[in-house]
Amino acid sequence: MYHFLVINNDTIKIMKFKYCPICGGKLVEKYSWDEGGVPYCEKDDKMFFDVAKPCIVVAVIKNDEVLLLKQSYIYKDSKVLISGYISNGESAEETVAREVLEETGIEINDIRYLGSESIESKELIMLTFVANYHNGEIKKSSEVEELGWVKIESALDEMKEDIIGRNVIKKLLSMRK
Ligand SMILES: [Zn+2]
User: Where is the signal peptide (predicted)?
Assistant: First the structure.
C-alpha cells in the first residue's frame, strides 16, 4: 500500500509553491503520510497541496436536443457545453443548477453525474453531468454570442474544440442506443 512506501526520490514531488500566499514567507518541504513531500509554511502551520480546481460541465437536454453556447474568447470556432467553477460551500449539483440558470436563464431537473476528467495543464478536474430542461426561456447574456438547442446527433459537428464536452455527448449518444 502507498502509505507504507519508503520515501525515495520518486515519491518526493518537485515543490510547486515556493512562497506562502498568506505571509509571503519561504515554504519548506514537509512530509505528509498521504502525499509525500508537500510545501509547508512553518509560521502559518499550513500545507499547500498540489490540488486541481473542480469544475462542472453539463449537457442540458430537451427531447432530442442539447443546449450549446458559443463564446469566441474561449473557443474561436466551436460551441461548448455549459460549464463553471464550483464555489466554496457549494455542492457540484448546486453549481450545475446555478451555472445553467446564470448562463441561460433556464431551470433544470434530474441532474445526473456522468464521470470526471482531468486537465493537468489547466489544473482542472471536470465533473460531468447531464440534466433535463425543466422551465424557462433562453436568456442570452452579453458575454455569449450564441445560445440555443442543437440536435444531439449533430452536436459533435459544432463542438470541434470542446474535448470534454464531446466526450459527454458521445456518452449520451451511446446511452441512447
Ligand atoms: Zn505563511
Answer: none
Which structural domain range is residue 36 located in? 9-49
Question: What cell was used for 153?
Answer: 446527433
CA of 161 to the centre of ligand 1 (A): 40
The verdict on 30 and 117 lying in the same domain is no
161-to-86, 114, 147, 166 alpha-carbon distances in Å: 22, 20, 17, 8
Task: Please identify every residue whose CB atom is under 5 Å from ligand 1, which is an ion.
Answer: 20, 22-23, 25, 41, 43-44
pTM of the model: 0.81
Tens digits of residue pLDDT in 42-75? 999 998 888 899 999 999 999 999 999 998 777 8
| Spacing, Cα 177 to ligand 1 middle (Å) | 55
